[in-house]
Amino acid sequence: MALSKQKKNEVLDQYKDWLKNSQAVILVEYTGANMKDMENIRAKIRESDGEFHVVKNTLVKLALEANGFAIPEGLLENSSAASFAFSDPAGTAKALSEATKGLEAIKVKGGYMGTELLSEAQVKALADLPPLPVVRAQLLGVLQAPASKLVRTVAEPARSLAAVLKAYSEKAQAAV
User: Fold this and answer.
1) CB 84, CB 18: distance < 8 Å
2) What is the number of alpha carbons within 13 Å of residue 87 lying toward its C-beta?
3) Rounded CA gap, 27 and 20, in Å?
4) Residues with Cβ within 8 Å of residue 128, at least 6 apart in sequence
5) Cα-to-chain-centroid distance, residue 46
6) Which run of H or E residues covers position 50?
7) pTM
8) 55 bridge partner residues
9) pLDDT tens for each residue of 127-152
């Protein structure tokens, strides 16, 4: 289906906006995928605050070039769909990976994190990262560990003295 010039400009503006607002973009080939699979992928990615859309290669190429992205040879060939991560790139990559698990028709082509090009292997590594809330919790634990150790170290002499006094008191009570 051919798009009118006006419609193409509207779609191009939408792609540019999505690229500008997303932290990561993952491109996949969907040759042979059915509509039900595509809807399942869309729903899963929306849960991670992302968007998944079938895109027109020529318009995506123009949008990428307009936003300063380097486009390697072969990235925008065959059928393409793009996943846009607006808040958590790792979460969106994980959602895409989970949604496409077992689907031979969906193949990751590559993507972008910021303006840096990601290979298929790097997208897989991104999907293997823990989601943002988990990373924040791990960081908080690392930051709190020294303070907790300091409190235990300072309290240990008093705890040891209390244990000695208690043992001495119990020994004195047993002797009575």
Assistant:
1) yes
2) 9
3) 16
4) 94
5) 12
6) strand 50-55
7) 0.70
8) 80
9) 888 777 787 888 888 787 777 777 77
